[in-house]
Amino acid sequence: MKVDIACNPASGRHNPAQLAQLVEAFRTEGFEASLVPVTLEGITFSPDSDLVCVYGGDGTLNLVARSMGKSISDRPLCVFPAGTINLVARELGYCARPQRFARQVARAFRSGSGIWTNSPVFSLGEQPILSCLSCGPDSAAVAACSPALKSRLGRFAYAAAMFSLLWKWPRQELTISAELVDGEQIETTAEAVFVARSRFYAGSFRLSRRACISNPDLEIVVMPRASRIRTGLFALALLARIAPSALGLARVFSARSVRIDGAILPIQIDGDIVPLTKIDIRPSGSIARYCI
Predict the structure, then answer these.
(1) Mean pLDDT in the chain?
(2) Which of these CATH numbers, 3.40.50.150, 1.10.3730.10, 2.60.200.40, 3.40.50.1010, describes 132-269?
(3) How much is the pTM?
């Protein structure tokens, strides 16, 4: 059995000592482990690897998926939670200790694909979406959050970046067109939008109770108004485990596809800012298979 461990040395959370422990843990479980560097230009995987392990967070996972393209369905994935937020790894229940993680993955790999978690991949052009997308004050905060700040403060760096926006609060007017799961076509306007593919957002918070990584649909959460006060109430609702839609702060739709026009704020996908101006999200036809 052979595993490629994809790692991003440029990441602020990169930990060579922990990575070495992970390599040794896989070898203890009977895998031949190889390190493959993740770059913006792509990744060169071993042609005969049986498994791809992503060492990092949701952004690194997205880079791996983008490099794999349509072949993402060919080899199973696992995610060691070494990033800042780790939404996908959190939902799937991957352990953050190298030895236990390798044992967990090896057990699932030997049990066969029948128990793995299959996740339909949605895409925005060539850009896969594995956990979430957003465009609004939160994505502006992600854009304002430097790698150095994330390295020092972890997830609290996003709160610090959001606080820095209070003096010049970002606003925009979006037009959202979606095909709902029942075939109905809707169009609405909003100042902020979230597209949830995974159960969690920004840690252990829930944008929609229907969001799930194995769900074949998208959960669209729109905020008609995203002022300072309403965005603060939205965040407090998430902290209190109250659905923002229950307080009239947002509307939630289950959709097959969605198009978002009018974005002037940065677009956040899987925790990273992407240089895109058009948002048209559709099923890619590929499936990510997580070995868990």
Answers:
(1) 92
(2) 2.60.200.40
(3) 0.92
